[in-house]
Amino acid sequence: MTAATRDLFERHHACWESRDPDRIAGLHTADSVFHLHSGQEPVRGQAAIREAAGRNTPTSTG
């Protein structure tokens, strides 16, 4: 794995681990299409991704 790939992975993982919809949405561009793993329709764009992340991401690990 290259250093650039590792950095991308680390940033992506940290955003999801934080469970912060703003950080998760920040991983995406205005024209991103995000496919949820819950069987829901894909969402498009940062605002929709932020909303979906807020609905589908638990706020605590316990």
Give an overview of the whole structure.
The protein has helices at 3-18, 21-25, 46-56; strands at residues 33-34, 43-44. The chain is mainly α and 62 residues long. The protein has one domain (3-56): Nuclear Transport Factor 2, Chain: A (Roll). It has a two-stranded antiparallel sheet with strand order 1-2. A hairpin with an 8-residue loop joins strand 1 (33-34) and strand 2 (43-44). The longest helix has 16 residues, at 3-18. The protein is globular. The model has no long low-confidence stretch (mean pLDDT 90). InterPro entries: NTF2-like_dom_sf, SnoaL-like. This is SnoaL-like domain-containing protein.
Topology:
Elements: H1 3-18, H2 21-25, E1 33-34, E2 43-44, H3 46-56
Antiparallel strand pairs: 1-2
Organism: Streptomyces melanosporofaciens
Pfam families: SnoaL_2
Protein name: SnoaL-like domain-containing protein
In brief, what are we looking at here?
The protein has 62 residues and is mainly alpha-helical. It is built from 3 helices and 2 strands. The longest helix is centred in the N-terminal third of the chain and has 16 residues, at 3-18.
